[in-house]
Amino acid sequence: MVVKVIPLCLLYWLLISTWWLMVSTSGMVLIPLTHSLSKTQFTTPHHLLKTTSTRSATRFRHHLHHRHKQVSVPLSPGSDYTLSFTLGSPSSSTISLYLDTGSDLVWLPCSPFECILCESKTPPLSPPLNLSSSATAVPCKSSACSAAHSSLHSSDLCAIARCPLDSIEMSECNSFPCPPFYYAYGDGSLIGRLYKDSLTLPNSLSVQNFTFGCSHTTLGEPVGVAGFGFGRLSLPAQLSSVSPQLGNRFSYCLVSHSFDSNRVRRPSPLILGRYEDKESQFGNELVEFVYTGMLSNPKHPYFYSVGLEGISVGNRNIPAPENLKRVDRRGSGGMVVDSGTTFTMLPASLYDSVATEFDHRVGRFYKRANTVEESTGLSPCYFYNKVDAAKVPAITLHFAGNGSSVVLPRKNYFYEFIDGGDGVREKRNVGCLMLMNGGDEEELSGGPGATLGNYQQQGFEVVYDLEKRKVGFARRKCSSLWDSLKN
Questions:
Q1: Secondary structure E strands in 349-427
Q2: Going by C-beta distance under 8 Å and a sequence separation of 6 or more, which residues neighbour residue 276?
Q3: CB 251 within 8 A of CB 274
Q4: d(CA 34, CA 432)
Q5: What is the spatial distance between Cα 219 and Cα 222, in angstroms, rounded to a whole number?
Q6: Could you identify which of 188, 271, 276, 328 might form a hypothetical disulfide with 280, taking C-beta atoms 3.0 to 4.6 angstroms apart as the criterion?
């Protein structure tokens, strides 16, 4: 008997191929999202939480202090959920990138590729791309070039590309490629060039002349980003040129994980072309969506900003500051719904009120774990008894609009783990509030007032309706949703 051994690369390709499914009955495209963060990268829960809380804070605050005016500066790329697709024709390469609703560009590492100061970062999810023979450089006169350079006028771009003066004056700069663009993130940056090639989604759904950034050198950014924010270069925007239905509405449902790698072996579904009413029937499950309107942000147009009216801790409603209910002309305010930030960030006044009320209700029963707070960056934390866990109050987010409140599952805002057991300290159950202080309102001037992180989005299907400009939330069993849509 001959036993054939399947190479790991072929096995990976087969798994990805079986995951790429078109749900033809409803005109939707289903794509798996893979969670990239596991406990194996960290020595202790303290290390994991400190790293994640620091990254969330850095991502949230970076754009407030950025001084480069010529580029749209997205939030730092997401580091939790990835998706895959293929680029190129006739030869194609499978690319895995971070999903980021907080940025508006698809960019990826290209061969030859060098990442400076990447020793401690997640390694590339797929090999650097070798541009196919069908890839073409985007000309400097293109509107896509202007979009990558924050709407810099084409004549300026032609000058940067060193077009002859007569070509600039005659607007005949099509033979000169778009100049390199510079993007800066919370903890890294990159220089890239724009190219066009064919992008293929499940069931051979292709987007011809798809525009993407190709980077040969980055600083602290080893993995590329699939931008899903507003903007003509985002993946949904370019997909809408082929199918408006697929590009104008999408959703994802993040499988609950609590940083347990065993819980994320099942993919989280990303659904392109998601069209549902307020109530939807899936088998025996009646799903009700809660919607809130998107706010326009003149300074950060690629953000999905919504209004937050307040947060309830138990039965006490804590009103949000006025800047979270709207966005002003300077781009200040609102809450960004972001797939790439892990923990929810709140302005100091609201965070302090929520944390104080939470401590008032929980602190009377459990002892504060001050040393855990110092080592994780989260607060308040408690040594608590799992048997009496009912004393942890419910937390509800009240978004703008009638009936637009979302009750968070406890595991979405109260992280439980074992502290000690290292031979020095005894084992004790610890729980931490997983909302973070984003800074004083004055510090947040010129940018979002708050961010709804992906940890708080677990176990919800989050719908982005770009046509009707609204965001929806519905409690779901995300792994079951994957199975129901796949079959």
A1: 367-368, 381-383, 395-399, 405-408, 414-419
A2: 287, 289, 463
A3: yes
A4: 26
A5: 8
A6: 276
Q: How many helices (H) and strands (E) does the chain have?
A: 10, 30
54 sits in which H/E element? helix 45-62
> Catalytic residues, which ones?
100, 338
Segment 425-431 mean pLDDT:
85
Specify the pairing of strand 205-219 against strand 106-116.
Answer: parallel
The residues that bridge with 279 in the sheet, in sequence order, are: 288
Q: 326 pLDDT exceeds 90? A: yes
More confident residue, 306 or 156: 306
Backbone angles phi and psi of 144, in degrees to 5:
-65, -40
Q: What is the DSSP letter of 358?
A: H
Of 152-161, 194-203, 302-311, highest mean pLDDT: 302-311
pLDDT digits (tens, 9 = 90+) for 222-280: 888 999 998 889 999 998 888 888 888 999 999 888 777 677 778 899 999 876 655 55
Instruction: Tokens 């939470």: give the residue.
Output: 358
Q: What's the whole-model pTM score?
A: 0.86
Helix or strand (DSSP H, E) at 226: strand 225-227
How many whole angstroms separate alpha carbon 112 and alpha carbon 157? 26
CA 276 to chain centre: 22
Q: Is the pLDDT of residue 428 over 50?
A: yes
Beta-carbon contacts of 237 under 8 Å, excluding residues fewer than 6 positions away, are 104, 230, 231, 247
pLDDT at residue number 397: 97
Q: For residue 80, what pLDDT is reported?
A: 75
Q: Which pair of structure tokens corresponds to residue 392? A: 């942890």
User: pLDDT tens-digit profile of 33-76?
Assistant: 888 654 445 556 666 676 676 666 666 655 444 433 334 455 55
Measured from the Cβ of residue 365, the count of other Cβ atoms closer than 10 Å reads: 12
Nearest alpha carbon to residue 152 among 119, 178, 187: 178
Using CA atoms, how far residue 347 sits from 44, 280, 331, 443, in Å, is 29, 35, 15, 9
Tokens 């990138």 sit on residue: 97
339: closest CA among 57, 80, 56?
80
Q: What are the CA-CA distances from residue 72 to residues 12, 68, 86, 439, 468 (Å)?
A: 35, 9, 26, 23, 24
Q: Quick one: the chain helix, strand, coil %, rounded to 5?
A: 25, 35, 45
Closest CA to 397 of 332, 452, 323, 348: 452
